[in-house]
Write a structure and sequence with these properties.
Blueprint (H helix, E strand, L loop, with lengths): L11 H33 L3 H29 L1 H20 L7 H30 L2 H30 L5 H4 L1 H15 L12 H24 L4 H23 L13 H31 L4 H7 L1 H21 L2 H19 L11 H24 L6 H41 L4 H12 L13 H32 L8 H10 L1 H4 L1
Helix pairs in contact: 1-2, 1-4, 1-5, 1-7, 1-10, 2-3, 2-4, 2-8, 2-15, 3-4, 3-7, 4-15, 5-11, 5-12, 5-14, 8-9, 8-15, 10-11, 10-14, 10-15, 10-17, 12-13, 12-14, 13-14, 13-17, 14-15, 15-16, 15-17
């Protein structure tokens, strides 16, 4: 029996396992905190603004620093950056779990959530680049289908795990990362992955521009729910952030050793894969937050029960991810990406039509269908995008792709969150007025209800009209998600080319062998 080995002579599956353990923490932490938010807010006495930032500081840090992490991996070394990222992530997780009560709590947990994101941004591009360099192009689809399938599944498991750990202590949702980090470090030591990298100057000017642009633009959307769209600070923040991102692109084009080679977007396939990924990620991470909130408020479930509900999304996702990876290896990315986006759009649309019935039994397989659509497209789109890079730029290409993904996820959370709160506020106000409450008093009460975090864990203690009004606001969000994935399907259909991508090394060998050999 022959065991496939990587460049260092170690079995390739051992390298893959090491990288999956390394990045698993970053995926779990994208969703695990959302379940524990009510308990964290109650125990630490956080403001609504503070608890929002405890959730979103992590994603924002990932989005702002991914390009830096990818560039760092390609210039310093992929294995070094994986180890550094794992250690930084685990240390920040421990500090989050040790958040003190009192006046320091809010600044403490938000700061270390951002540090967690920095660790993930350093680790993830390096880990993905190691997998890409370990597996040849024709085997990469299966390997990365497993990589993204497990990682995406862990995103779905986050709320489940968070629900049950929170019943012990919310601090455990952070401490659970520590044993995972230790396993990852042991596997990295055993597998000793070997990759190529090239020393180069670091573009700190570009880092400052992209970090500031991402932070300001997302900050504006996130604060709109709290400050209101009439506040001039919202428009100024969003406008300044977007302007800085435009300046970043122009500066990078003229920089000798840029943080991000923006000219890579001239590659049509890379451009369209990232467009599709960006559109899809407006939905993928937010669905876990809104699904958890709907389960706790609309269905009146406990934190643990609401996490279990999202396992249906995971079930569809992980099965379809394996099929999508095989489709990529056999016929290229277009078919699984278009099919996945379309299936996901249908799943979200049908799910939206059932949420106001407040009966999850009528929704569960529609949730799985939406998850399956995401599973079909996410791995192939990400893999095909990274495959467009040269061997020495895999980390950089991953950094670009993940920047797009996390920036879009942050925007999706902020924008859909604003829409959800606005819809819920409007419906609760109307319901209270219909019950005889004066309009001004009803609006004030609705504002308090719409800013509350999470459910109470019991359908009995939540008035039926509140549950129904929240379900209607969730329906609006799901319909928007369906439309968003339909747009992604159209972009993929029109922008992606059919057929399997050729390996540049194989093309070069064929050309050198002459026309007869090539044929």
């Amino acid at each position: 029996m022959t065991v496939a080995v990587g460049s260092g002579g170690r079995p390739k599956y051992l390298v893959l396992a090491a990288m999956i353990f390394a990045v698993s923490m970053t995926f779990i932490d994208q969703t695990i905190v959302s379940i524990a938010v009510p308990e964290i807010q109650r125990e630490l006495g956080l403001s609504n603004t503070g608890v929002q930032w405890a959730v979103n500081a992590y994603l924002l840090s990932l989005a702002a620093l991914f390009a830096f992490g990818g560039r760092l991996a390609d210039t310093v070394g992929h294995r070094k950056m994986v180890v550094l990222g794992v250690v930084l992530f685990a240390a920040a997780s421990a500090m989050c779990g040790l958040t003190p009560k009192g006046s320091l709590a809010e600044a403490w947990i938000v700061t270390f959530r951002a540090v967690q994101g920095a660790g993930g941004a350093i680790m993830f591009p390096a880990a993905l680049a190691i997998v890409v360099q370990t597996y040849p192009l024709r085997e990469r689809g299966k390997a990365l289908a497993l990589f993204f399938g497990v990682a995406g599944g862990l995103t779905a498991i986050g709320p489940v795990l968070g629900g049950y750990l929170t019943e012990w202590t919310w601090r455990a949702i952070f401490w659970v990362n520590i044993p995972v980090a230790l396993i990852a470090l042991v596997l990295v030591f055993i597998s000793k992955p070997e990759t190529e990298h090239r020393p180069a100057r670091m573009d700190y000017r570009g880092l400052a521009l992209i970090a500031s642009g991402v932070a300001l633009s997302v900050f504006g959307f996130q604060q709109a729910t709290i400050w209101g769209w009439s506040n001039p600070g919202i428009g100024i923040s969003i406008g300044a952030g977007l302007l800085l991102l435009v300046v970043f692109v122009q500066v990078e084009r003229r920089t000798e050793s840029p943080l991000m080679k923006v000219d890579i977007f001239r590659n049509r396939a890379f451009l369209f894969e990232n467009l599709v990924l960006g559109i899809a990620m407006l939905v993928f991470i937010p669905v876990f937050f809104f699904g958890s909130e709907y389960a706790q408020i609309g269905l009146g479930k406990s934190a643990g029960e609401s996490g279990v509900i999202l396992l249906y999304f995971f079930l569809g996702f992980v099965v379809a991810a394996q099929i999508g990876g095989r489709m990529l290896d056999k016929g290229g990315a277009k078919r699984p990406v278009v099919l996945g986006c379309a299936l996901s759009a249908v799943g979200f649309y049908l799910w939206a039509g059932k949420v106001t019935g407040l009966d999850f039994n009528a929704q569960q397989w529609l949730v799985a269908l939406a998850g399956a659509g995401m599973g079909f497209m996410l791995g192939p789109a990400s893999t095909d995008a990274v495959n467009r890079a040269s061997m020495l730029s895999y980390g950089e290409a991953t950094g670009i792709t993940q920047t797009v993904r996390n920036y879009a996820a942050s925007l999706g959370l902020a924008i859909l969150g604003t829409i959800s709160v606005s819809q819920f506020h409007s419906r609760v106000t109307s319901s209270l007025v219909a019950m005889g409450m004066p309009k001004g008093q009803a609006a004030a009460q609705a504002a308090r209800d719409s800013q509350s975090q999470g459910g109470t864990g019991s359908a009995v203690t939540i008035p039926h009209f509140i549950r129904l009004d929240f379900a209607y606001s969730t329906r609006t969000v799901l319909y928007i998600m369906a439309g968003t994935m339909a747009v992604a399907a159209v972009v993929a259909f029109l922008g992606l080319q059919r057929g399997r991508q050729a390996d540049p090394a194989e093309e070069a060998e064929s050309a050198a062998a002459g026309p007869g050999k090539a044929a």
